[in-house]
Structures are given as structure tokens and as C-alpha cells.
Design a protein that fits this description.
- By secondary structure, this protein is α/β, with parallel strands linked by helices.
- It has two domains: 142 residues, 3-Layer(aba) Sandwich (Rossmann fold); 82 residues, SIR2/SIRT2 'Small Domain' (2-Layer Sandwich), CATH 3.30.1600.
- Helix content is 28%, strand content 22%.
- The protein contains eight helices and 13 strands.
- The strands form four sheets. The chain has a six-stranded parallel beta sheet, sandwiched between helices. The chain has a three-stranded antiparallel beta sheet with strand order 8-7-9, covered by helices on one side.
- The longest helix is centred in the N-terminal third of the chain and has 17 residues.
- It is elongated.
């Protein structure tokens, strides 16, 4: 159990393990392969320059899979915690799906982008809602500026989004919780090392992460089973 007192500020980082419990493949956990392509071959700026149709084929598949997924009890537990704590809770996710929002969360920060949005690869046009699937023989959509429309997702070699807000929340938190993360992907894997100097740190997931020594305590098990009964507000 994690006790939360009135003066506490809680930072929660969620990873692919949380969405995997809703049926969304982690890809990395299954060997990082899709149709014999490694993730770097379909999720990088170089992949986009080389073959944007292949990239869109991959992300169209991800959209179809995500469309069929539903939030699990872990997502609903985080939404309930948000309602209880308000702005004392900061949730940042490495996931690009919208399962947190489907469960009722309204303040989740998507550091790796959002699957249901797209953006231009050339101009500064703001990301926009896009639920289309672009099949292999479908034309890649174009921006009015002439650029190609790409997924609004942070690829290998690109800088994650909202890092200033994330850093400020890390500095302010007194409780840090990682849920379903491998402890491998940077910069998220280093968040606990920063937070542990001034906050209690906890991990929740079926397997211990590679950086488990950085946590005050690890709760091993499915997040959908643990999160609904993990937090106790004093």
C-alpha cells in the first residue's frame, strides 16, 4: 500500500505493460519485431524518409489494434486517483493510445505522442485529430504546405514531448510511481533516479524492471489487479 498524505505530490509514469493488459502488443517485449522489421526500421525519421508507406502501414495496424482495446482496471484506478488528487497528481505515459482518456483521465501527458493524431513533416502546423488508416496502396496525405502527413509519435532518435513540464513535476513530487515500464527506454528510465533524491519511489508491474534497485519498493503483479487497491489517501 502507498499512503498519500495531504502534502504529497504524486508523479506516475506508465509504460507499455499497462496497455498490454488491455491487449495492445508491446512489440519491444515480443522481440521488437513486426513482419520481420525491427522497430527502428518502421519507427524512425530514417524509416520515414526511406519508405513512408511502410511506416503508415505499421501505424495503421497499431490504430486498428488500439481501436479494439478497452481500458482495464488499472486505467480506471488512475482516473479515480486523478479525481481525488486533482493537480497534486501528474501522470505521464510512454503509451500513445488513449486508454487513459477512455477511462476518464483528463490530465495525462503523452511524452511519446498520440496515436490518434497526425502532423506535417515540414511545417509548424499543430498536430490534429486523425483516426484514418492508410493502407499500403493509399496515397500518403499531404499538408497544404506540400509536406507529408506523418503520425504524431516520437520516433527513435527524436526528442520526447513536454520534457519541461515533466522535469518540473519530477522536481516537485514526493511520491514517484512507475507502472508497467521496462526501465530501458530513455529518458523515462532515468526519471526514478532523479526523483529518488527527494521522493519515495515505487514500481508496479508483473516483472521487475532492469532499474529495480532505484525503487524504494516493487509491487509485482498485474497493474489491473494492484492499482485499484494500492493507494490509500490519509
Amino acid at each position: 500500500m502507498i499512503k498519500i498524505f495531504p502534502q504529497d505530490r504524486v508523479f506516475i509514469l506508465t509504460g507499455a505493460g499497462l496497455s498490454a493488459e488491455s491487449g495492445i502488443p508491446t512489440f519491444r517485449g515480443s522481440g521488437g519485431l513486426w513482419r520481420n522489421y525491427r522497430m527502428e526500421e518502421v519507427a524512425s525519421p530514417e524509416a520515414w524518409q526511406r519508405d513512408p508507406r511502410l511506416v503508415w502501414e505499421f501505424y495503421s495496424l497499431r490504430r486498428r489494434v488500439a481501436r479494439a482495446a478497452k481500458p482495464n482496471p488499472g486505467h480506471f484506478a488512475l482516473a479515480e486517483l486523478e479525481r481525488a488528487l486533482g493537480d497534486r497528481l501528474f501522470v505521464v505515459t510512454q503509451n500513445v493510445d488513449d486508454l487513459d482518456e477512455q477511462a476518464g483521465s483528463r490530465r495525462v501527458i503523452h511524452m511519446h505522442g498520440e496515436l490518434w493524431k497526425s502532423r506535417c513533416d515540414r511545417c509548424d502546423r499543430a498536430p490534429f485529430d486523425d483516426a484514418e488508416v492508410y493502407e499500403p496502396f493509399r496515397e500518403i496525405p499531404r499538408c497544404p504546405c506540400g509536406g507529408q502527413i506523418r503520425p504524431y509519435v516520437c520516433w527513435f532518435g527524436e526528442l520526447p514531448y513536454h520534457l519541461d513540464r515533466i522535469q518540473a513535476a519530477l522536481d516537485a513530487c514526493t511520491i514517484f510511481v512507475a507502472v508497467g515500464t521496462s526501465g530501458v527506454v530513455e529518458p523515462a528510465a532515468s526519471f526514478v533516479a532523479h526523483a529518488r533524491s527527494h521522493a519515495q519511489s515505487f514500481y508496479v508491474g508483473p516483472e521487475a524492471p532492469v532499474n529495480q534497485d532505484a525503487f524504494t519498493k516493487c509491487f509485482l503483479g498485474n497493474s489491473g489487479e494492484l492499482l485499484p487497491k494500492l493507494f490509500f489517501l490519509q
